[in-house]
């Protein structure tokens, strides 16, 4: 019995980040189009190269979800697969994974495949992968449907918020409404956004200066759910110093269990842009 955990590449884990005797882990890459150049968001992608190309490019840039066949190739490698995707309200990735599941089951009707919409991305997906891995390792014979139900409940308990220096790519690609008024024009204002329960982006708050921004993020986290014992994952786009300062603020003001820091892979770097911080908890 081979257990498979599959994610799209917006989950900021690399293949080497998941070590397990009993579970295989694979990420299916999205594609990033910067002017005439295409980057595949795999483990070989160098984020600084991507950011440099983005800064140099004047024409439109965009991203594209993986094909159903790419998911099917990943699903075929296991007997039982748990797949997490980026929010279906932000990307066609979830639908591609569901179609990939159908393709796989046509050929291998005995396989079991569960596709779960994370309604988020980045750290929330990392937490889902870790929970799936822990539950499978604790009981490799766990009932498949029970496991999927537990993971769906965990998904619904997770929250995401983020702050970016630059929302251009999210707005230009139609993933969020344009910022208005003071949000757009005041210098030094940091916009803090969060994920709605449906997996869309919502502007939640604003703050002036970095320390106040981190305090506002901690306050938003505390009002969004009971954070006692929560595991927190911060993804940063070339902003380790910011991630460390935010981690300190979270540990000082919330009763969370742990705060891990990861660097953004390609897809989250494309949208979070330089200095972006995304918090899953
Ligand atoms: O299908 C595609 O081409 C991918 C489109 C992805 C669009 C948005 C990615 C945003 C990632 C900001 C964090 C947002 C968390 C929001 C959760 C609802 C970076």
Helix count equals 10
> What fold name goes in the CATH topology slot of the largest domain?
Rossmann fold
Mean pLDDT equals: 96
CATH homologous superfamily descriptor of the largest domain: Dihydroxyacetone kinase, domain 1
Helix content: 25-40%
The CATH C-level class name of the largest domain: Alpha Beta
Radius of gyration of CA atoms, rounded to a whole number: 18 Å
Percentage of residues in strands: 25-35%
Count of individual beta strands: 13
Bound molecules: heptadecanoic acid
Largest sheet: 6 strands, mixed
Identify the CATH architecture of the largest domain: 3-Layer(aba) Sandwich
- The coarse overall form would be globular
Q: How many separate domains?
A: 2
Strand order in the largest sheet? 10-9-8-13-11-12
Notable characteristics:
alpha/beta, Rossmann fold, Hypothetical Protein Tm841, Chain: A,domain 3, 39% helix, 10 helices, 281 residues, six-stranded mixed beta sheet
């Amino acid at each position: 019995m081979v257990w498979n955990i599959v994610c799209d590449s917006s989950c900021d884990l690399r293949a080497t980040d998941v070590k397990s005797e009993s579970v295989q882990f694979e990420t299916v890459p999205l594609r990033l189009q910067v002017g005439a150049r295409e980057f595949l968001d795999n483990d070989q992608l160098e984020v600084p190269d991507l950011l440099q190309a983005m800064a140099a490019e004047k024409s439109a840039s965009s991203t594209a979800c993986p094909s159903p066949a790419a998911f099917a190739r990943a699903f075929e490698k296991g007997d039982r697969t748990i797949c997490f995707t980026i929010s279906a309200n932000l990307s066609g990735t979830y639908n591609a994974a569901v179609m990939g599941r159908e393709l796989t089951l046509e050929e291998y009707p005995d396989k079991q495949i569960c596709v779960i919409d994370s309604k988020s991305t980045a750290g929330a997906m990392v937490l889902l992968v870790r929970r799936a891995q822990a539950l499978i390792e604790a009981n490799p014979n766990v009932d498949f449907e029970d496991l999927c139900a537990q993971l769906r409940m965990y998904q619904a308990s997770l929250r995401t918020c983020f702050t970016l220096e630059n929302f251009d790519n999210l707005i230009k690609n139609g993933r969020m409404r344009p910022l208005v008024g003071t949000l757009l024009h005041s210098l030094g204002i940091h916009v803090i956004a969060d994920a709605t329960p449906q997996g869309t982006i919502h502007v939640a708050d604003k703050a002036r200066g970095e320390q106040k921004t981190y305090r506002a993020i901690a306050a938003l986290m505390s009002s969004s759910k009971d954070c006692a014992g929560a595991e927190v994952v911060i993804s940063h786009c070339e902003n380790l110093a910011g991630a460390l300062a935010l981690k300190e603020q979270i540990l000082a003001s919330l009763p969370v269990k742990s705060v891990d820091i990861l660097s953004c892979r390609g897809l989250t770097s494309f949208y979070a842009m330089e200095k972006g911080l995304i918090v899953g908890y």
